[in-house]
């Protein structure tokens, strides 16, 4: 897309075609990233179109209830409310070090989301080539137990998407970034298709091991699966 106007025109066309072909309504959100677009879509349901340009992101998010933020469920919302955080704006202004103390590495992610920051990739459903997540630590770390704990959490989040779309994967890739921003990506293709979380975690751990150096701190870790195949289609072929 060249600009937001072109994106809006396409969204109007999509809504019109869905209405004409299926007699159904849909809600579409347009934003500078997936996070903002998803929130914009959600607040316009069941039949809306919201466009949030990059310059308007903070003003758009500011007044929204905290449970409108991606990944904030009832339990997390209650914990945030207990800290006096009622809106996304409240979270954006909160001390990030306290969020990390209360929520661990997800505290950093929640803080970034509240700023409207989301660097995750956009993929086409039905033509998904890979699914991945990454997290930047609040402070560079050489605490390897923490690194693997976070890596496992990322694997679990990715695995939920794999299950959601009923997929099998064959390639596992990890990404890590040192404190000086030197970044490495290392992948391994398995000899079999799988959807097992244990296979994902085990391979991710193996791939991460060579980068754990006592003299170097890690800034970011990520986990990804690719070489995806529909489990349903695979079953039909078997």
Overview of the structural elements:
This protein folds into three domains: 1-55, Alpha-Beta Plaits (2-Layer Sandwich); 62-119, DNA polymerase, domain 1; 130-237, Dna Ligase, domain 1 (2-Layer Sandwich), CATH 3.30.1490.100. It is 45% helix and 22% strand. It is built from ten helices and seven strands. The protein has helices at 4-22, 34-43, 57-61, 74-82, 88-92, 96-103, 105-114, 144-164, 197-208, 231-237; strands spanning 28-30, 49-51, 130-141, 167-178, 183-194, 218-226, 229-230. The strands form two sheets. Strands 3, 4, 5, 6 and 7 form a five-stranded antiparallel β-sheet that branches. The chain has a two-stranded parallel sheet with strand order 1-2. The longest helix is centred in the middle third of the chain and has 21 residues, at 144-164. It is globular, with a radius of gyration of 20 Å. The model is unreliable at 234-238 (pLDDT under 50).
Give descriptors for this structure:
238 residues, alpha+beta, Alpha-Beta Plaits, DNA polymerase, domain 1, Dna Ligase, domain 1, five-stranded antiparallel sheet, two-stranded parallel ribbon, 10 helices, 7 strands, globular
By helix and strand content, what is the structural category?
alpha+beta
Distance between the termini: 40 Å
* Secondary-structure element pattern, one letter each: HEHEHHHHHEHEEHEEH
**Rg calculated over all Cα atoms:** 20 Å
Mean pLDDT: 87
- Integer tally of domains: 3
Helix content: 40-55%
CATH class of the largest domain: Alpha Beta
Q: How would you characterize the largest beta sheet? A: 5 strands, antiparallel
Low-confidence stretches: 234-238
- Outline type: globular
The appropriate CATH architecture of the largest domain is 2-Layer Sandwich
């Amino acid at each position: 897309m060249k600009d937001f106007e072109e994106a809006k025109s396409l969204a109007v066309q999509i809504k019109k075609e869905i209405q004409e072909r299926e007699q159904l309504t849909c809600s579409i959100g347009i934003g500078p990233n997936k996070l903002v677009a998803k929130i914009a879509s959600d607040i316009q349901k069941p039949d809306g179109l919201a466009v949030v340009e990059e310059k308007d992101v903070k003003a758009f998010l500011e007044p929204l209830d905290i449970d409108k933020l991606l990944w904030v469920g009832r339990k997390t919302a209650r914990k945030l409310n207990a800290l006096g955080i009622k809106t996304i704006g409240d979270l954006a202004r909160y001390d990030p070090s306290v969020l990390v103390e209360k929520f661990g590495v997800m505290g950093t992610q929640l803080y970034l989301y509240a700023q409207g920051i989301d660097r995750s990739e956009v993929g086409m459903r039905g033509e998904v080539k890979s699914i991945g997540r990454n997290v930047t630590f609040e402070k560079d770390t050489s605490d390897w137990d923490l690194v693997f704990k976070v890596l496992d959490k990322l694997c679990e989040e990715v695995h939920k998407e794999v299950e959601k779309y009923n997929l099998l994967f064959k390639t596992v890739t990890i990404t890590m970034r040192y404190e000086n921003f030197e970044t490495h990506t290392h992948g391994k293709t398995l000899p079999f298709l799988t959807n097992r979380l244990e296979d994902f975690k085990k391979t991710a751990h193996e791939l991460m091991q060579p980068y754990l150096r006592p003299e170097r701190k890690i800034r970011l870790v990520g986990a990804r699966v690719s070489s995806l195949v529909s489990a349903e289609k695979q079953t039909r072929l078997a």
